[in-house]
Amino acid sequence: MLKGGSLPSPIITPLSSSPLSSKNKIHTQTFVEIRSDIPNIRIYFTVDGTKPDPFQTFRTGSISTYLYRGAFRLGPGRRVVKAIAVTQ
Length: 88
Known about the structure:
Blueprint: E1 11-15, E2 31-35, E3 41-46, E4 66-67, E5 72-73, E6 82-87
């Protein structure tokens, strides 16, 4: 059961029909989708394994948290996708 004010984690899914793809390892040309069954939320994500921060400001010269707008391809190399849902 969820605590008051918390939302279920978004679902991260590789969009691949390749039999060689697994849940934890995907080809870099594979699109990744992030979704939630909760309406009217925003999804924020990172691809470097850090916790998404929807209130992040441009302080350090780079931003690692992105607002999800649609399926995307991961860059080459090891990537760890993390996502959170936030009410609008």
